[in-house]
Description:
This protein is an alpha+beta fold. It contains 12 helices and 19 strands. β1 (35-42), α2 and β2 (64-67) form a beta-alpha-beta unit.
Amino acid sequence: MPPRGSDIPRVAPVSFWFDALDQRPAARPALPSARDADVCIVGAGFTGLWTAYELLKADPALDVVVLEREFAGFGASGRNGGWVVGEPVGSRASWAARSSAGELRRFELALRETVDEIGGVAAAEGIECDYKRAGSLQIAQTPLELQRVHERLADERVWGIEDTVLLGAAELEERVRVRGGLGAHFTPHCARVQPAKLAIGLAAAVERLGATIYEYTPVTDILAGRVSTPRGDVRAKWVVQATEGYGAGLPGRRRDVVPITSAMIVTEPLPDDAWERLGWDRAETLQDGRRMYCYLQRTADGRIAIGGRSAPYRYASQGHRERRVGREISRRLDARLRRLFGDLHEVRIEAAWQGVLGFARTWAPAVGVDRATGRAWAHGYAGDGVAAANLAGRTLTDLMLGRHSELTTLPWVGPLGRRWEPEPLRFVGIRAVYGLLGLADKLESRTGRSSRFATAANRLTGQT
Length: 464
Ligand SMILES: Cc1cc2nc3c(=O)[nH]c(=O)nc-3n(C[C@H](O)[C@H](O)[C@H](O)COP(=O)(O)OP(=O)(O)OC[C@H]3O[C@@H](n4cnc5c(N)ncnc54)[C@H](O)[C@@H]3O)c2cc1C
């Protein structure tokens, strides 16, 4: 059944990535009526799709159903910065404290391998998603930002990471010419993708393997062995919650993962002479040196996409519906773009969009299953979910199929570490962290000295 008028949500455009597709896939039918399945996955983003993909690769006879409220790739997966990040989110010290240095190392290596894994599957499945593995640069434009680059490298050495490097000003200039670039941190463990192309290609691959994706089918509750929708229930041995930043909308889930928005803008294609001036030939992903950092990619068609902080957290985890990006947010991102590449003044910004990502209280994503209830989950990626969702899909597959593997004992396997505080504490705490980091950035750019406000923010989030 194609989506009917009342089923189609009135929302802002998804993203430039979707608009740039040669062809949008046709809408998939909604769930026609109640049915049974072996595995029912809620959410057709990277988590849900990779889980379906891996399950069917492991056991092609499985009946896998994916229920999606909007359409495949509608959530963060079709809106993100396209960084395929091969390192754990959050502080390594916190990961090691929760497990051990050895377990953190295994996690780190598994994420690194995931960067290649995604490129490999994309190639094998013929998914043309502009995948390019060229590593990532954290740019320093002030002495303080350079100090943070040194601190990052020192921290990495503590945890046995030896293949990241400091680039001096001249080496940075050879790669990309930024205003007043003093140096950069370089890690080889990152690739770039066009995220909507990956999500759409993956959805098609999942269908080729035999899964059924129902779109425009909102799940109203997840219960033991059953999922409720207005069109009937789906009964399944396993129900996978793959709703990331939207999970707070499900009954009883408000305090698991909070929705935080991030916004992006993209330029028109830059003329060849602008690229000659900028360099950036290898298309590494870039990050600026601020506390509230911005993330950038050079797109395959010669644009710059830049993302960063967006609308503030809304009371009681509301606001997980997408809105248009406010003028002030686009203006701020534009200013950050020009802070990096001063002579871009002639280049127009072509589109702006935003999306919702999920943060766990401990900043640590969690992947797990509960055999007693048949519930499975993977969420809380905190803005680093493109690679992690693939690793989550492979891990959930092993867990659901009862296979003991290297993946099933990684330190993120289990329930979320801690629930968020009830309101109004949650609201006050999250707003305070954002306020403190923003203030730290302002003071640091004025004084050139590290601000204690940032230390306070890190204490509040547990990321010391
Ligand atoms: C602007 C932005 C930039 C980002 N940049 C990066 C980056 O560069 N690198 C990186 O690693 N990560 C990045 N992220 C985060 C990354 O995109 C996510 O972590 C990742 O896509 C999460 O995938 P997911 O499948 O778990 O969630 P989503 O892609 O959000 O998918 C969840 C799906 O569940 C559906 N859903 C929700 N509730 C229901 C329900 N009740 N019933 C049915 N369906 C439901 C939603 O419609 C959605 O399609 C960014 C995120 C944003 C928003």
